[in-house]
Amino acid sequence: MRLPLTLLLLAVPQLAFAQSCNVDMPAVEKRIAEMEEFYDDVLSDISCDAPTIPAHILMCDSIGDANSNLWRMGRLDDMASVYAYENATGTETNHANPPRYGSFIEDRDACTDAACLCDLLIEHTNDSLGGGSPYAEQLGQPKA
Description:
By secondary structure, the chain is mainly alpha-helical. Helix content is about 50%, strand content about 0%. About 25% of the residues are buried.
């Protein structure tokens, strides 16, 4: 007996679909390493102790998951956001509690799937780093 595809998909745990964001992760890791020289003390605003927001759960579940890049992409975005803020204002901020501006946090927290988070993290990191982003080409920006 063959099950319809929709029933089969419902039977498979959602974590099995924790997809990669289809990005060049070695380039992301390289950019993280470069930024950590000055921004290693930047902390995420997401606590993985007991996350309840679906986007936070997806991000936290991706820690150590070889099939998901969300947490590492979030790490780069956190540092890139502080970098952009400091460059825009010309002042150093408290890296342990940086200001969060714009609608990014609200938009991120509204995501309910990995695809939404991937798109949003790519867009926000590109906005923060411009051509210095490892994703620049994904939104048509030339790499620096």
